[in-house]
Write a structure and sequence with these properties.
Elements: E1 4-12, H1 19-28, E2 33-40, E3 43-50, H2 63-66, H3 71-87, H4 93-97, E4 99-104, H5 110-121, H6 133-137, H7 141-150, E5 156-159, H8 165-179, E6 184-191, H9 196-204, E7 225-226, E8 228-236, H10 237-242, E9 249-258, H11 268-282, E10 291-293, H12 300-314, E11 322-324, H13 327-330, H14 337-351, E12 353-354, E13 377-378, E14 383-390, E15 394-401
Parallel strand pairs: 3-7, 4-5, 4-6, 10-11, 10-14
Antiparallel strand pairs: 1-8, 1-9, 2-3, 6-8, 9-15, 12-13, 14-15
Helix pairs in contact: 3-7, 8-14, 11-12
Length: 404
């Protein structure tokens, strides 16, 4: 079986629009959660949210062409171009045909959709929508624009499975590369849905925090929505070493499962099965795991369920593993969440540092693992996991290993 490695990184996020800025803020515990305000029926409505700031699409493509892209696709292109340039790849036409672009997205062009509704339904609106409304909002737009921007002619598609979208996309990519279907890939996730309608929809579920996200902590009150994109260049280890590429880590394994129980309530058995399946795929045992970047949404039920799932999967080793939730820093980016957290996981392995769970107040007996509260921790990290558990009972876990 081919060993697959990560040779390029790119990111657009609430804590930085470059890998360097993301890394510095991640380990310093500088979060990107703020407040977004919207006019509604004569008053302002406020939501805590983790918004991407100071992103310039013209740094990555022609500004006029960028008008045809929804914000989520712009993020996808920006992060992918960073990753591609970071990898140092130069693809011949034949190599481009053997390169894939597989991206996770939860809901696609929500900014375009909401803009269109305003134009049509607002009495003061134009009554007409943008002629490229459909191409802008479709969920596969991000992967298609990456392919066009970089001239990649191999398989390209989007995986949409709510909060597990990015991890599912990366897992599918891993399987395609191991099978020999493709030799190289750009994969990850992108999302931008911080619109008034989307925020109100999540608020109606009563899972939103009134202020910040404090995963695994006593007093946690819910999740905070975020946005962004993270992309990775994957290659076979043989190819990467042959061309002298910089290798960040090995993408060692992938596991998934379905709860088959409830659309919104997580299940311990299903979540633990994804982690167990990941360990099997990567040929690891629980004692190999040093760090876990958890799904950790900050809701009472989710964090308690994930804690039990990890204990079920890792058994006696669970309490010896450092665990943190990066959603405390950059919110829950839905279809892009797993990709942003994969980047945090890769950096943790590369730098032997566990990122912190910020906003942590005090221990909760239901979340009795080592949650790396508030400050990053220098420690040996040779193997790490990254979990994503989605609405619909769709669970995924990936393993990252240090390459020596």
């Amino acid at each position: 079986m081919q060993h697959i490695v990560i040779t390029g990184l790119g990111v657009v996020s609430p804590i930085g629009n470059s890998v360097k800025d993301f890394r510095d803020n991640l380990f310093a515990g500088r979060g990107g959660i703020g407040v977004m305000s919207f006019p509604f029926r004569g008053q302002e409505v406020h939501f805590p949210a983790a918004e991407v700031k100071n992103f310039k699409i013209e740094d990555y493509m022609d500004a006029k062409k960028a008008l045809l892209l929804d914000r989520f696709s712009q993020f996808a292109v920006g992060a992918a171009k960073q990753a591609f340039e970071d990898s140092g790849l130069s693809l011949s036409p034949e190599e481009a045909e053997r390169t894939g672009v597989i991206v996770g997205t939860g809901v696609g062009g929500q900014n375009t959709l909401e803009e269109s509704y305003h134009k049509l339904l607002d009495p003061n609106g134009s009554g007409r929508v943008h002629p490229f409304t459909i191409p802008r909002l479709m969920v596969n737009a991000g992967s298609s624009h990456i392919s066009m921007n970089l001239g990649i002619t191999g398989p390209g598609f989007t995986v949409a499975s709510a909060c597990a979208s990015a991890i599912h996309a990366m897992g599918v990519t891993l399987s395609m590369m191991r099978s020999g279907l493709i030799d190289t890939a750009i994969t990850g996730g992108a999302e931008s849905c911080l619109t008034f309608g989307t925020l109100k929809g999540w608020d109606a579920l009563r899972v939103m925090s009134p202020d910040v996200c404090r995963p695994f902590s006593a007093g946690r009150a819910g999740m905070v929505l975020g946005e962004g994109a993270a992309m990775f260049v994957l290659e076979t280890e043989e190819k990467a070493k042959k061309r002298g590429a910089k290798i960040y880590a090995e993408f060692a394994g992938f596991g998934m499962s379905s709860d088959a129980k409830d659309l919104t309530t997580p299940d311990v058995v299903g979540a633990s099965r994804a982690v167990i399946n990941c360990l099997k795929d990567a040929k690891l045992v629980p004692e190999d795991i040093d760090y876990i970047n958890a799904h950790g949404t900050g809701t009472r039920i989710n964090d308690a369920t994930e804690t039990e799932a990890i204990k079920r999967a890792l058994e006696n080793h669970a309490k010896k593993v450092a665990l943190s939730s990066s959603k405390s820093l950059f919110g829950h980016a839905l279809g892009a969440a797993g990709a942003l957290e994969m980047l945090a996981t890769v950096l943790a392995v590369r730098e032997n540092t566990a990122p912190p769970t910020i906003n942590y107040q005090e221990a909760d007996p239901e979340c009795d693992l080592d949650c790396v509260p508030n400050e990053a921790r220098a420690m040996p990290i040779d193997v790490a996991l990254n979990n994503s558990f989605a609405f619909g009972g769709l669970n995924a876990s990936v393993a990252v290993k240090k390459v020596i």
